[in-house]
Amino acid sequence: MGNLTIKSKPMGDYGTNCYIVDINGKQIIIDPGVGAFDWIVTNAKSPIAILNTHGHFDHIWSNDKVSKHFKIPIYCPKDDVFMLKNDPFGKNVPKSTADFEIKPDGMIELLGKKIIFHHFAGHTPGCSAIEIDEHLFSGDFIFQGSIGRVDFPFSDKDKMKKSLQKVLNIKKNYIIYPGHGAKTTLENERNSLKAWLNYL
Q: Which terminus of the chain has fewer Cβ atoms in its 10 Å neighbourhood, N or C?
């Protein structure tokens, strides 16, 4: 399996979690948000890739700076790639380019790990939870006791319902690392997810 460790730090006004996943001394950066650059440079000596869970500005803000500094590629869900260039919320986000556009439920291999972008549309069209071993980086799909909002531009309540049904069918008990707030597990969230499914 190799040694895998995870560091996280909330970034910017929205406390968006940036994650550094270290696998045998090389790192994968997940969701480099506002002001994440300095923390990444200090804590990741040999990063090889940036993974985006979705395209919202607070998760991709430092994409370009980190990518250029370390000369590493950006992987983003295909259906959210447009947000990296178009700044749909008018936040003056530094533009970035996805080197790899990941298809829904697509899999890549990095550092000997199979990494799956589980597609859970609703919060955004391409919203994905990224699986590395038993860890699931859920972006803004699942939080501790809550789910991502569906009242933003490009959000879709009906797709969120389908995504909640889809995740509730997963039998594996992932450790969930959300885009905001504390980590949790899929087992711990099942009741909350069922309640949200009925509420939407």
A: N
All structural domains of the chain, each given as residue ranges with its CATH number in brackets, are 4-199 (3.60.15.10)
pLDDT in tens, 175-188: 999 999 999 999 99
* DSSP state letters, 10-49: EETTTTEEEEEEEETTEEEEE---TT-HHHHHHH-SSEEE
For the sheet with 107-110, list strands across it: 107-110, 113-119, 128-132, 135-139, 175-178, 184-185
Q: DSSP 3-state helix, strand, coil percentages of the chain (rounded to 5)?
A: 25, 30, 40
* 7, 8, 90, 128 from 125: Cα distances, Å: 27, 25, 18, 9
Residue 195, number of CB atoms within 10 A of its CB: 13
- % of the chain surpassing 90 pLDDT: 97
pTM score, whole prediction: 0.97
Query: Is 1's pLDDT higher than 80?
Result: no
- What integer pLDDT is reported at residue 2 of this predicted model? 58
